[in-house]
Design a protein that fits this description.
With 502 residues, the chain is an alpha+beta fold. The chain is 38% helix and 21% strand. The protein binds adenosine-5'-diphosphate and magnesium ion.
């Protein structure tokens, strides 16, 4: 195992600071791989199918049925392992993890134990306090269990085995996180990488991304680890943060009352906002792991591993850095724009076509993100594609339409699918810069508000905004605001400020 390389950081939150105790957190993240078929049989992995419709003797564990490994799943797992800087082992070994549970028809889960697919990775997490590194202990492959459904029949639990055998990777971090906020940031950034890799859809509500959070506390300055507990059942980022905050508080109370934290597993109750004990924690020997006798060791050639390494896409941290360095964007923009690969692609297409990255960023981070939020859309689903957005940006830049009118045109583009130029022409939205026309509006406004003009003359300069608003109203938003400001200054001020009238 590699050395800890974290820099000393200030405590990230009050919750990890109180009482001179610090929190120590390690996450186990289960990620469902985006394959059409299960890990050891050809059943479909589709979400939402009729219960128990995608099952066969292999995933039901019927006697004599033999598993075979899905090569596509292995490649996705290797991609992920490489992206997290792990050493991918040419030989790894599947193992049986034995336990009894209603949703586990075989009585064991095929996982990897002593010889996992990949070990010793590193992941750099960006936070407001800078960067810090989280060591990845291992990434192994395993199959998912089925699902117990408690809401189908009164007073009975139903079991749906469609998910049994779905391919997963488990990504285990070293205990390198120090606060619930840090854990959340790490998780969000891990998810972003996995999405960029096209390894999983990471849908937390559908269970494609599940997290077990391990946490202990210790007096600040101490380097040994305290007894940890494991919290399960969080299905959102905020759930992870809240559950950890609650559990750290609970552990601190136990210690403050002279007690000792007990090794156990707890469930997060989102509704009550509290953790409650599920069972005293099992040890790995309770699972009686042994090598899976029905599968040979998993062998991947170093050539194949290197080929997969070459196929890795640009990862979000690199892309964000490139946006800062090559496109000269502020860090904030770079982070927002790389939140998803689709959004980054969208932005880059706009930036390329307009030749102005900051301008493209303003449009994407402003009206485009607002549109995504409003319609709950991903960037790939946006009705206004980059090619047609560019035309609108040009119209605004040329001064043909104002910024504000531009935003309305964008909305119409989304609704009708028409081009910016068509809409501007049809609705007569072209910005008015004709001096006579503008002067006419300005004069009308000043003539109909003699009282305000007088007050302005007496020094009430903030009325400038009022006059401006009136002119814009009269022009239905089409007047060129710069010109209007210049004309107003000219007509209102005895000695106009030259900076304002330009
Ligand atoms: P277990 O055998 O209980 O599964 P592991 O040593 O395999 O424990 O670690 C599982 C996860 O718990 C890892 O993510 C690891 O970083 C984290 N972890 C281990 N010990 C501690 C601790 N004392 N405090 C917080 N997290 C821990
Ligand atoms: Mg474990």
């Amino acid at each position: 195992m590699s050395d800890a390389s974290r820099r000393e950081r200030a405590p990230a939150s009050a919750s990890s600071d109180a009482g001179g105790m610090e929190a120590v957190i390690g996450l186990e993240i289960h990620v469902q791989l985006q394959t059409e078929r299960k890990l050891f049989c050809p059943d479909s992995t589709r979400f939402g199918d009729a219960p128990n419709s995608n099952v066969c003797p292999v995933c039901l564990g019927l006697p004599g049925a033999l598993p075979t490994v899905n090569g596509e799943a292995v490649e996705l797992a290797v991609r992920a392992a490489l992206a997290f800087g792990c050493t991918v082992h040419e030989t790894s070994v599947f193992a049986r993890k034995n336990y009894f549970y209603p949703d586990l028809p075989k009585g064991y889960q095929i996982s990897q134990f002593e010889r996992p697919l990949a070990t010793d990775g590193r992941f750099t997490v960006q936070s407001e306090e800078g960067e810090h590194e989280v060591r990845i202990r291992r990434i192994h492959m395993e199959e998912d269990a089925g699902k117990s459904l408690h809401d189908r029949f009164p007073r009975a639990t139903a079991v749906d085995l469609n998910r049994a055998g779905t391919p997963l990777i488990e990504l285990v971090s070293e205990p390198d996180l120090r606060s619930p906020e840090e854990a959340r940031g790490y998780l969000q950034q891990v998810k972003r990488v996995i999405e960029y890799l096209d390894v999983s859809d990471c849908n937390m509500e559908e269970g494609s991304l599940r997290v077990d959070a391990n946490v202990s506390i210790r007096p600040r300055g101490v380097t040994t680890l305290g007894t940890k507990t494991e919290v399960k059942n969080m299905n959102s980022f905020s759930g992870v943060e809240k559950a950890l905050t609650a559990e750290i508080r609970r552990q601190k109370e136990v210690v403050a009352q002279g007690g000792e934290v007990e090794h156990m597993t707890l469930l997060w109750d989102e509704v009550k906002g509290e953790v409650r004990p599920m069972r005293t924690k099992e040890e790995s020997h309770d699972y009686r792991y042994f090598p899976e006798p029905d599968l040979p060791p998993l062998v991947i050639s170093s050539d194949r591993i290197e080929a997969l390494r070459l196929e890795l896409p640009e990862l979000p941290a690199d892309r964000s850095r490139r946006f800062r360095v090559e496109l000269d964007l502020p860090e904030y923009d770079a982070e927002v724009l790389t939140a998803s690969r689709a959004l980054a692609d969208y932005f880059e297409a706009v930036a390329k076509a307009t030749g102005n990255a900051k301008r493209a960023s303003n449009w994407v981070m402003g009206p485009i993100l607002a549109m995504m939020k409003e319609g709950n859309l991903g960037a790939e689903e946006l009705p206004v594609r980059p090619e047609v957005l560019v035309e609108l940006i040009e119209l605004v830049e040329e001064g043909a339409v104002s910024q504000n009118v531009g935003k309305n045109v964008l909305r119409t583009m989304a609704e009708t699918g028409d081009s910016a130029r068509e809409i501007v022409q049809r609705e007569g939205l072209t910005q008015v810069r004709d001096p006579e026309q503008l002067e006419g509006w300005v004069d009308e406004v000043l003539e109909s508000h003699p009282e305000e003009v007088a007050r302005f003359g007496e020094g009430e300069k903030r009325l400038r905004g009022f006059f401006m608003g009136e002119v814009m109203k009269r022009s239905k938003g089409k007047a060129d605001p710069g010109e209007v400001a210049r004309l107003l200054a000219l007509k209102l001020e005895v000695s106009p400020d030259p900076r304002r009238s330009s």
